Amino acid sequence: MHIPFNASEHSSLGVEVELEIVDRRSRELASEATSILDELGAGHPAGEHPKAKHELFECTIEIITGICETVAEAREDLATTLKEVAAAAERRNLALLCSGTHPFSDWHDQKLSPDPRYARLMDEMQWLARRMQIFGVHFHVGVRSAEKSIAIANALTAYIPHFLALSASSPYWHGRDTGLASSRSKVFENLPTAGLPYRLGDWAEFELFMETLVNAQAITSIREVWWDIRPHPNFGTVELRICDGIPRLGEVAGLAALAQCLVEWLDTLLDRGDTLPVPREWVIRVNKWRAARYGIDAEIIGDDHGTRVPVAQSIRKLIDELSPVAARLGCLDELTSNLETLVRGPSYLRQRRVVSAGGSTVDVVDSLVREMETDRST
User: What's the whole-model pTM score?
Assistant: First the structure.
């Protein structure tokens, strides 16, 4: 199977954010996506908003950017669409938030979006898909060739714990503390084509992978390969799908900068003739688990000898190394904002602080809504 790769000229950026719709009175997830999207789509071609979309369940709206040159442009693009969606939600006494899981809503209660694709998915995956009451943020970064996309995707697996630790925002599931920083990442892994990516040798092997699964009717397109990192031939990007839902646009921008700078840096190393290092698969697996379990307090494996390295220390070192790249791309402030996340704590810690101070998971929802509305951490 020949799969053309629509190469990008440079490390362009696209961001996708899955928003939760909640009732302001009950704080439960609300199945109101169609109502909101129908209003927003009025006046647009085919009655659809170009940057606000359905997701699997009616309690979710995904907002997306266009093809952006800079992190600041992507942030402004998201902010514009978010303002429109939030206004439509407010007219219905609804609010928006973004976290890996809703702190207490029950997945049994969620309604499927009116899209035949999702109906087919639910029919095939059954209980596994029905439980997908989870929310994430995805980053697309442009690369200049199909072969580069494979090499860069492989190398990016070393940084899965960095992205997951900084974005972890799903400590609660059905009103209970799971003991994890990111329960979303473990729920998602249950789908047969989700989770850690396979290590592919080249573009030809990716084409063989797709041909095998499409011919076997296991998938219909790359859209059904939900790896943490995947090449996206249609967009000419490497897509990073690791992150939990991120409550603040400021934090989204910080991780977008990290993604864009990493891909740009790895691309430059390839141009220099370097072979990109890739951790062993068992190291990648353990490191992802530790980030899901412990967040920024995780100790990840740093080499084949099992040397343990605090992930927070590794993040600081990485940001320092990428700072010249960020300065060149115009996103140094956004990149270094990830250091602030290490200091104040990612969302999973902030949510737990609400409860440890005597609050309930209802109060956690309120704190997440405030963070999205104000772009400030509570």
Answer: 0.97
Pairing of strands 194-195, 226-227: parallel
Length of the chain: 378
For the stretch 329-332, contacts whose Cβ atoms lie closer than 8 Å and that sit 24 or more positions apart, written own/partner, are: 329/11, 329/70, 329/71, 329/257, 329/260, 329/261, 329/264, 330/70, 330/71, 330/72, 331/70, 331/71, 331/72, 331/253, 331/256, 331/257, 331/260, 331/261
| 183/173 Cα distance (integer angstroms) | 7
User: pLDDT tens digits, the chain, 378 residues: what are they?
Assistant: 899 999 998 999 999 999 999 999 999 999 999 999 999 999 888 889 999 999 999 999 999 999 999 999 999 999 999 999 999 999 999 999 999 999 999 999 999 999 999 999 999 999 999 999 999 999 999 999 999 999 999 999 999 999 999 999 999 999 999 999 999 999 999 999 999 999 999 999 999 999 999 999 999 999 999 999 999 999 999 999 999 999 999 999 999 999 999 999 999 999 999 999 999 999 999 999 999 999 999 999 999 999 999 999 999 999 999 999 999 999 999 999 999 999 999 999 999 999 999 999 999 999 999 999 999 988
Q: What Rg value do the Cα atoms of the chain yield, rounded?
A: 20
CATH architecture of 13-374: 2-Layer Sandwich (3.30)
Q: Which two tokens stand for residue 364?
A: 């956690």
Cα–Cα distance for residue pair 144/200, rounded to 1 Å: 18
In the chain, where the domains are located: 13-374
